[in-house]
Automatic annotation (TrEMBL):
<keyword id="KW-0804">Transcription</keyword>
<dbReference type="InterPro" id="IPR011006">
    <property type="entry name" value="CheY-like_superfamily"/>
</dbReference>
<protein>
    <submittedName>
        <fullName>Response regulator transcription factor</fullName>
    </submittedName>
</protein>
<dbReference type="Pfam" id="PF00196">
    <property type="entry name" value="GerE"/>
</dbReference>
<dbReference type="InterPro" id="IPR039420">
    <property type="entry name" value="WalR-like"/>
</dbReference>
<keyword id="KW-0597">Phosphoprotein</keyword>
<dbReference type="InterPro" id="IPR001789">
    <property type="entry name" value="Sig_transdc_resp-reg_receiver"/>
</dbReference>
<feature type="domain" description="HTH luxR-type">
    <location>
        <begin position="148"/>
        <end position="213"/>
    </location>
</feature>
<dbReference type="Pfam" id="PF00072">
    <property type="entry name" value="Response_reg"/>
</dbReference>
<dbReference type="InterPro" id="IPR000792">
    <property type="entry name" value="Tscrpt_reg_LuxR_C"/>
</dbReference>
<feature type="domain" description="Response regulatory">
    <location>
        <begin position="3"/>
        <end position="121"/>
    </location>
</feature>
<dbReference type="InterPro" id="IPR016032">
    <property type="entry name" value="Sig_transdc_resp-reg_C-effctor"/>
</dbReference>
<feature type="modified residue" description="4-aspartylphosphate">
    <location>
        <position position="54"/>
    </location>
</feature>
<dbReference type="InterPro" id="IPR058245">
    <property type="entry name" value="NreC/VraR/RcsB-like_REC"/>
</dbReference>
<keyword id="KW-0805">Transcription regulation</keyword>
<keyword id="KW-0238">DNA-binding</keyword>
């Protein structure tokens, strides 16, 4: 059973998502909150698999709520999915950097919404490669801080290659094809890289790849 926490300051939005989720046998909405501080407390109380959090809210917004959840070891199993009204909200990358597993636009079709919740619960994707590509196309054209590469030296050559391809928005099957390996082997490389880098999910691998200099931002 996938346990979901809904955090949005608009009651109509929360009730709409809840009505949709409640129809699914494998999903259980365990709690609702109207702002990030309340959402954090409910996350500690209920330990959901997924926290669907609006990016813009009064009191404590979605980015700060994400940051606090990601910083709490007791909430390591919670995958934060940011909700936004716009496909490429200016704060989306900040939310991913804070620890979000990915994001959804609020006008997403029900089937895609439910699929995204299930995928995010597995922790093995940034919701969809197409979304990753949109993020990259928007943000890698902007100067990002380049880190010292700490942690990069821990990866094998194949793990670095796999992480770089994740950062390009490729799915496991596409990575396998590019590296001429099986999808299972590709997933193994990615999972080992996540463990070594202490990344919560693939979203964090994307952030790491650009900030470490493993992948260079395009100048276009």
């Amino acid at each position: 059973m996938i346990r979901v926490l809904l955090v949005d300051d608009q009651p109509l939005i929360r009730s709409g998502f809840r009505a949709l989720l409640d129809l699914e046998d494998d999903i259980d909405v365990v709690a609702e909150a109207a702002e990030g501080g309340e959402g954090l407390e409910l996350a500690k109380e209920h330990l959901p698999d997924i926290a669907l959090i609006d990016i813009r809210m009064p009191v404590v917004d979605g980015i700060e709520a994400t940051r606090r959840i990601a910083a709490d070891p007791a909430l390591a199993r919670v995958h934060v999915v940011i909700l936004t009204n716009h496909g490429l909200d200016e704060y989306v990358f900040d939310a991913l950097h804070a620890g979000a597993a990915g994001f959804l636009v609020k006008d997403i079709v029900p089937e895609d919404f439910l699929h995204a919740v299930r995928v995010a619960a597995r922790g093995d994707a940034l919701l969809a490669p197409s979304i990753t590509r949109k993020l990259i196309n928007r943000y890698v054209t902007q100067p990002l801080p380049t880190g010292t590469g700490t942690g990069l030296e821990e990866l094998t050559g194949r793990e670095r290659e796999a992480v770089a391809l994740v950062a390009q928005g490729l799915s496991n099957d596409e990575i396998a094809g590019r590296m001429v390996i099986s999808p299972l082997t590709a997933k193994t490389h990615i999972n080992r890289a996540m463990t070594k880098l202490r990344a919560r999910d693939r979203a964090q691998l994307v952030v790491f790849a650009y900030e470490s200099g493993l992948v260079t931002p395009r100048n276009s």
